[in-house]
Amino acid sequence: MTSKYLKNKYLSIFILLVFLSLKVQTQSNNFKSDRTKFAAINVGLNGLFGGVGSLINKKDNKTNFKTFLNGFYKGAIGGAVTHIGLSMSHLIDSQKNIAYAWPARFVNSMGSSIIQNAADGDRMFERLHFNLFISRLEYYPYQKKFSARLFTSSLYGIAVVGSGNRFDLGKSLKSGVLFFESDGRFENSLGSGRATGQVSSVGMRSDITGDAFYDIFAEEIAHIQQYDRKVVGNSFVSKLDSKWKNNSRFYKKMSKYIYFDLNGPLFWMAYKIADSGKCNYFEQEAVNYSNRRINPCN
Fold this sequence. Notes:
Blueprint: H1 2-24, H2 29-56, H3 64-88, H4 90-95, H5 101-120, E1 128-132, E2 135-140, E3 145-151, H6 152-162, E4 166-167, H7 169-175, E5 178-182, E6 186-188, E7 191-193, E8 195-198, E9 201-205, H8 210-228, H9 232-236, H10 238-247, H11 249-255, E10 258-259, H12 263-275, H13 281-291
Parallel strand pairs: 3-10, 5-9
Antiparallel strand pairs: 1-2, 2-3, 4-5, 6-7, 8-9
C-alpha cells in the first residue's frame, strides 16, 4: 500500500514538474534543435546507465533482458527529471534571483537519485539525495529514514573556489551553494575563467554585476547540476563497496559519516574528453539550459 501510494504521489509531482518546465521554456528557434538533442541524450544515456548498472547489481532471478529493461526505464525517467531541473536553472537568469537555484537543484537531485537507484537495482524512490554545502542529505521514503554525511567532493570544490577568495554568507544561504568572490581569475585543472562552478561552490569575479551576474550564475549552477548527474560511478562499484564494508570495520564505520563519491573523477574525465574537440558538450549544454541560447564553438 505504501509503495503504491509513493508511486502515485511522485508520478503526480513528475507530471506537475513537466508542466512547469513547459511553462518556463520560452524557446526561440536558434536553440530548439540543440535543446531536443540534449533532452534525448539525458533520457537515453541515463537510461543506458540505469540498465547497465542494474545488470551489475542484479538482485533477483529475472532474465538479464528484464533486469536491463527495468533499469533502463527508471534511468530514462531520471534523465527526464534532470532535464527539467536543468531547464529550471534559467529561472535564475530570467527572474534575476539566485534563490531559484534551490528548486532547480532540488529537481535535478530528484532525477539523479532516480538514476542512481536504477543503476543500484533498487526501487525508483529507494533513496533520495540532495547535496547541501558540505553534506550529502539522504532520505529513504519507504523506511522513513533520514541521514546526513560529509560530501567529500565538496571539500575539493571549496579548495578550488574558496582558496584566497572572499566567502559571501548571504548569497550562500539564498542560493543553497557556497558562494565566493574574487578580484582575479579562478584557476583549476579544467581551465581558468572569471567564474566557476565546482561541486557545491560557485566563484565569480567581484566586477560581474547587473544582468551579467545572473546570466553567469545560472550557467555555473547548471555545471553543478551536471556534476551531480554523474552518480552512476558509485553504483557501478556498489558490490565492491559492500565487500569493503564486510571486510573492514573501519571503512564501514567511516561510511556512516562520509560519502565517498566518484562523481569528481568521472566528471573530470568526461569534461577533458569533451574539451579536446571543437565544441565542449558540457559548456554547450549548460549555456543552452541556463541562458536559452547557443554557446559558440571554440
